[in-house]
Amino acid sequence: MNVSVVGSGYVGTTLAACLADLGHDVTAIDVDETTVERLNAGETTIHEPGLDPLVSAYAGGRLRATTDHAAAADTDLTVLAVGTPATPDGSIDASILLAAAEDLGEAIAEADGYHLVVVKSTVLPDVLEDELVPAIEAASGKTDGEGFGVAANPEFLREGSAVRDFMEPDKIVIGTAGDERALDRLAELYQPLISDWDIPVVETGRREAAMVKYANNAFLAAKVSLINDIGNVCKEFDVDAYEVADAIGLDSRISGEFLRSGVGWGGSCFPKDTAALVAGAESAGYEPTMIEAAIERNDRQPERLLELLDRHVDVDSRRVAVLGLAFKPGTDDVRGTRATPVIEGLLERGAEVVAYDPRAADAMAEVFPDIEYADSAAAALAGAHAAAVVTDWPEFADLDEAFDAMADPVVVDGRRIVERRRGITYEGLTW
Ligand code: NAD
Q1: Is residue 129 domain-shared with residue 33, that is, in the same domain?
Q2: Which of 18, 78, 159, 258 is deepest in the core (most CB within 10 A)?
């Protein structure tokens, strides 16, 4: 198929490269010239395991990039994969998506035949139906379901394993307004995946498909917040929360995934999607108290880590190492990372923060330009009076003698990654 993908961030670049790998001709469209130049040179602007080899293999061949939205007109379908960030009150900021929709609508205005718009961006059902579809109709002069169709096809990939997640998803959710042509095109798009992996395909309505993504993320966020709550209780009773979690995870109704208690969830999706769901529900007159509680527990975990640190050391004017800045290992993304509130709390206490992350230091330097960034975990620990472990990068399991160079070896581990060893004062956040 001839496909265009609007937005070349974590989702769009992964999609463009994977769709090329599945045999489709892909045009990646982004407003950022550097991103487009890099893609055409076979490079990416993000770190994602396995992505660079795909982009370099297909760039200039089945994968091309441009800043010109008009290129979408020559393709069979266009995937919208631009950002849908949160406004300060938590509600969804759809302006980027609506601008992209308008550009796409103008592009397909003169095109002959039916064009399918596939919405990958996470968007609430009412924004999809009441703003996005009308924006394409207005810009194209065509009617939804006639000159073009719109399908909601939310994405469930995780940063850090995006390529594998796209190629081997647990499910593919396709929401249409009962438009057979949309279903046919998406079946053709995903055919290589579906036939190779026997992946369940959920066909549903557009509104339902859009909500599946929010429900999925709210459920996972709440699961982590619940195990974090349980972990905190375990700590109070001197109970090993990880042994408890291993046991409850054997219950098939609970499952063992997402049961590692710690400093909380971050990233570009859980925080903004839970906030958007709360804001959307409240504007409709309903208060989703469970989701609110999940957010509140998540907001409080970093402060709990800092309180544990306070019990051992007064960090005022002292060097404190922060190990891990990315919101999770395997990515350079610091959006929503728990490292941000931890660093803020340390700075409020007067600490001299020295941070280390194998991938995310450059991104974090844009948020905190004035703290020190070390080239290695060992360099960050040297001379430090305390260390806060925020991301479970595997290398933090092997630091061993690096702790000997600390001025005061107090380690508060927010991810249960550091090996407890003689000579350090070790505090697990929830165990
Ligand atoms: P991102 O911020 O990494 O990338 C968005 C890209 O869109 C940027 O490269 C930006 O330059 C580009 N862009 C902005 N306006 C544009 C326009 N008018 N035309 C073309 N390009 C434009 O975002 P992301 O993390 O890839 O997320 C994209 C969407 O997918 C969001 O709705 C997000 O919630 C959803 N999502 C993200 C993930 C994830 O793990 N990151 C997972 C599932 C779903």
Answers
A1: yes
A2: 78
